[in-house]
Design brief:
The complex is a heterodimer of chains A (203) and B (385). Chain A has 203 residues and is an all-alpha fold. Chain A is built from 12 helices and 2 strands. The longest helix of chain A has 24 residues. Chain B has 13 helices and no strands. Classes of the chains: A mainly alpha (203), B mainly alpha (385). Chains A and B meet through helix 2 of A and helix 5 and helix 7 of B.
Chain lengths: 203, 385
Amino acid sequence: MKFIWETLHLWILLTLIIAGGVGFVFVQQQLVPETYGDLQGRYGPYRAAALDELKLQPEGSIRFIADNVCHECHESVHEERAEAKHITVSCVHCHGHATEHVQLAKAAVGNENAVIPVAHIWDDESDGNATMAAAFAKHDLLTTEHKTVCLSCHERVVGMPEDFQSIITVVGHVDNHLEEQGADEPLAFNTCFECHSGHDTAP
Amino acid sequence: MEEVPFIFPSDEHTAWSIMIVLYPYITGLVAGAFVVSALYHVFHKEELKPVARLALVTSFCFAAFATVPLLLHLHHPERCFQVMITPSTTSAIAGFGFIYNAYMLILVVEIWLVFRPTIAYRAKSHDGIVGMIYWCLALGCTNISERAKAVDDWMIKALSVIGIPVACVLHGYVGFLFGAVKANPWWSTALMPIIFLMSAIVSGIAALILLYLFISKRRGVAADPKCVASMARYLWLFLVMAVTLEGMEILHMAYEAGSEWEVLHELITVHLFTSYIVIQVLIGSLIPLLLLPVAFLPKIATKPKLLYTVSGIASVLILIQVFAMRWNVVMGGQMFSKSFRGFTEIDLHWYTRESPYVAAVVMVLPLIALWVASKLLPLWQESEA
């Protein structure tokens, strides 16, 4: 008894620490969001309900639209590309994120008077010689035959897998490939389209 | 064959700013200062008694601000509690909140026990609001009988003993965060936690020497030459270990000459030339290594002027060395591309909340806290009687 009295301050401290610990666990339990970790085994630690919430978001707020959404209305393009190797390349790579386009087009279904804005055409002169990144950031929907779009994937760079279908370019944009194939206007911005097309790219 | 320099797009920007340099620097000072206090409390190095309390409180003051650089770095600092509310068991960073809090708890309790006699005494001798504050600090229990003091002393010792591994874990863990990044050869080494720990102890001792010399001067009291000499000797010892480990690490990589050495070699000799070779190795390590043995001279305690000058200069250089070391680790690891074929420039974020100006302010905060603490509690044992 005497010992406890002499060390009373330590017992008070211990009580405080335990109370603090219990308090922390209590508050922590309250703050853990519902459904957190429910899918632990499959997807790791996060809120399972977040998946459903994302699905419910209005379409316009989603930045990336999958190809099958475009296919709903552009079935012919789907067919064109079905056999081509480019089937793995998403529409958004060449046409911009097209979120507004999809919204407007969906709203226009069954509405005779609705106008769907035409796609912006990006070429060498448009947008004051804007870069590819700038053009794609600025326009919701665009069509382009600009070679930089093709070269953004097909220019051979260090570290690219050997067997990836790429072409070697030389500084100054006179491409080896163009010389070999005998392009008429190797310096034109749309030179690739002399021989390839946008959807079925096989020459 | 001359290879084309090439960096991956994701390597272009150095996301980790000077704040991430500051974080291991400050936690290092925390762990280092604690080790000095433990040398007195656990290993009974009586000559360190004059700085034992200063060491504890310094450790606390720096620990109190250890998270500030991290919070400044975060874009959503308000989410910091998430790592403790929903910790991921496989995430290395999730451990920090728990380790940090465990260390803080031990430190606060130990400081409280060390200063309890003073707090209890003042709670009894002061009236009004001041008395109330001290009474609350004493947790309402002002018993300072011999028996109570004996138990407290035992507790202080026990906490110091527990505190050493926890302080080591705290800082070793910071090293682990870097050492466990296997994609980055400049970081990925099992030696990283030990290297961080050694340089932490080095920086802690150096900071204490400077603080002790500076505060003694301000108070107009002569610093205890025996104490300074002892700290300088420990400083030398730990510096030898730190520098050896840092050197071995590089030597090891150079001798193995793996594919990554190509890029690391250029990193060290070109891109980090000033901060690594000149500042960290030549100025920050070599000169103190040559200066500090003065403290081993047999009659050094009778020549305090020489001792203070030498250990003061060495300490300043060492604090710079350790900062350079943190800088070289954090920034160096981001300067080369993971393609191992190209380098990027460091972005100092001059006009953001992560700028070097803000970093300077963050470094001053613990010192202000120390000044406030020195007003509240007697850091000097002689003045207590």
